[in-house]
Write a structure and sequence with these properties.
43 residues, plasmid, membrane, transmembrane, transmembrane helix, rod-shaped, mainly alpha, single chain
Length: 43
């Protein structure tokens, strides 16, 4: 059980940071690029 105690908080922290910070930034960047491409296709 001791071997599980160390990685668990690290995994939870990494997951928390990824869900609240990393994924929204990646989604926003991808959406912005898609919008620019769609905008240039109309021009």
């Amino acid at each position: 059980m001791q071997r599980l105690a160390a990685p668990t908080p690290g995994g939870l922290t990494t997951s928390f940071v990824a869900e609240l910070l990393l994924y929204p930034v990646l989604f926003y960047t991808a959406k912005r690029i898609a919008m620019k491409r769609a905008e240039s296709a109309w021009a």
